[in-house]
Design goal:
The chain has twelve helices and 17 strands. By secondary structure, the chain is α/β, with parallel strands linked by helices. It has two domains: 297 residues, Adenylosuccinate Synthetase, subunit A, domain 1 (Adenylosuccinate Synthetase, Chain A, domain 1, 3-Layer(aba) Sandwich), CATH 3.40.440.10; 90 residues, Adenylosuccinate Synthetase, subunit A, domain 2. The longest helix has 22 residues. The chain binds inosinic acid. The site of inosinic acid has 22 residues, from helix 4.
């Protein structure tokens, strides 16, 4: 494999999530010594398809399938013990044992079953209902529990009891729903923590040590930049910072040490949940994208909304995230269109302006050499990179690792591809 991975690389989604980060990170992880999650929780759904199976990871980093790769959950991730245990068991059933290579920050906020109840009771934007927002609320309000609190059982029980009283007050008196049973929640946490406690560590220091030993670290973003709590389509966003800048905050790794920021971008756009989506297509073209792209949410099974690529917004996000290169996914989903609109501007009333690029109407599925793509498909790729000002170094043309085109690291000089 010939990936363009540098030493400390951040990989993030450039749209509303579901860009295919799981596939790209699994592929890049063949060259990395560690993959580190830095935000979000089990709201993420990173799908990895191999010749033999399809695995969906929610909390565990997408390096899990590579036996040499360490998997790290940084302090920015809200951690559900239940979800983590279920996922570790699922991987074990698939002969993937993480016991020796999973590292979890002592400072991860704990996501409790009562957070899920609160999320379900309060949701107004179409969340994944996993309790993510309420868990981050407790973190910021400084009343939340951290995974490290489990090391002192007495302290944990007292703090958990106070927090659950507060949750139950909201659940009962504000949302008029059935409260949780505090003792049951606490006992479940203590039971589930057994396997987790040996994995806790000071992630920041471990990453610095690995960096000093010249290990290649891959920081795995979840969701996408348009779901960022500050820079996304507020209030229709997730509750964490999904932008590249959070890779330092969510792990404790030095901001000066990152030297590559890869943006994973779908060749069109999708969104799950509510909120603005100016390039959405409510017609047969949207339906073709949904069918061909199998656009169903990996976490919730909801149908994804579909539409065209928004280059105007993509260019803005390239700047906000210091994107050094784009990896473009699902190009083959566009195969049947005679023309492919891309948004290049907006009018004052926020109506998108499109330019129609020529389609190729030839199958590109599984193509793995740039020059084997039809001229129009190459034209589409090159139009995007000219517009946004950064190279597209990798193009994905199918689900498995082998369905990938690696271009020269500087596509403007892509001599190899021109042959
Ligand atoms: P939450 O993250 O569950 O609070 O959901 C907030 C918004 O983010 C909703 O619109 C969700 O559909 C969306 N969201 C959260 N995680 C993902 C993801 O992994 N992919 C796509 N959308 C997501």
């Amino acid at each position: 494999m010939n990936s363009p991975l540098l030493q400390n690389t951040i990989v993030i989604g450039m749209q509303w999530g579901d860009e295919g980060k799981g596939k790209i990170i699994d592929w890049l992880a063949q060259d990395a010594q560690a993959v580190i999650r830095f935000q979000g929780g089990h709201n993420a759904g990173h799908t990895i398809t191999t010749l033999r199976k399809k695995l969906i990871l929610h909390l565990i980093p997408s390096g899990a399938l590579n036996p040499e790769c360490q998997c790290v959950i940084g302090n920015g991730v809200v951690l559900s013990l239940q979800a983590l245990n279920t996922e570790m068991a699922m991987l074990k059933e698939n002969n993937i044992d993480l016991a020796e290579r999973l590292h979890i920050s002592l400072n991860c906020p704990l996501l409790l079953p009562s957070h899920e109840v609160l999320d379900k009771a309060s949701d107004s934007i179409g969340t994944t209902l996993r309790g993510i927002g309420p868990a981050y609320e407790d973190k910021v309000a400084r009343r939340g529990l951290r995974v490290g609190d489990l090391l002192d059982e007495k302290f944990f029980c007292q703090k958990a009891s106070d927090l659950l009283d507060y949750h139950n007050f909201l659940i009962n008196h504000y949302y008029h729903q059935k409260p949780v049973t505090p003792n049951r929640v606490i006992d479940t946490c203590l039971n589930l923590s057994e396997k987790i406690l040996p994995l806790l560590c000071d992630v920041a220091m471990r990453l610095h040590e690995w960096h000093t030993n010249k290990k290649r670290l891959l920081f795995e973003g979840a969701q996408g930049v348009l779901l960022d709590i500050d820079h996304g389509s507020y209030p229709f966003v997730t509750s964490s910072n999904t932008v590249a800048g959070n890779a330092a905050i969510g792990t404790g790794f030095s901001p000066l040490q990152f030297n590559q920021v890869i943006g994973v971008c779908k060749a069109y756009t999708t969104r799950v949940g509510e909120g603005p989506f100016p390039t959405e297509e409510h017609n047969t073209e949207g339906e073709i994208l949904r069918q061909k792209g199998e656009e169903v949410g990996a976490t919730t099974g909801r149908q994804r909304r579909c539409g065209w690529l928004d280059l105007f917004t993509l260019r803005r996000m390239v700047l906000i995230n210091s994107i050094t290169e784009i990896m473009l996914t699902k190009l083959d989903v566009l195969d049947s269109f005679a023309e492919i609109p891309v948004c290049i501007d907006y009018s004052a009333d926020k109506t998108p302006h499109y330019i129609n690029l020529p389609g190729w109407q030839i199958m590109t599925h599984a193509v793995n050499r740039y020059n084997d793509l039809p001229t129009q498909a190459r034209g589409y790729i090159e139009y995007i990179e000219d517009f946004i000002g950064v190279p597209i170094t990798v193009v994905s043309t199918g689900k498995i690792r082998e369905h990938i085109i690696v271009r020269h690291s500087d596509p403007y000089l892509a001599a190899e591809d021109q042959r």
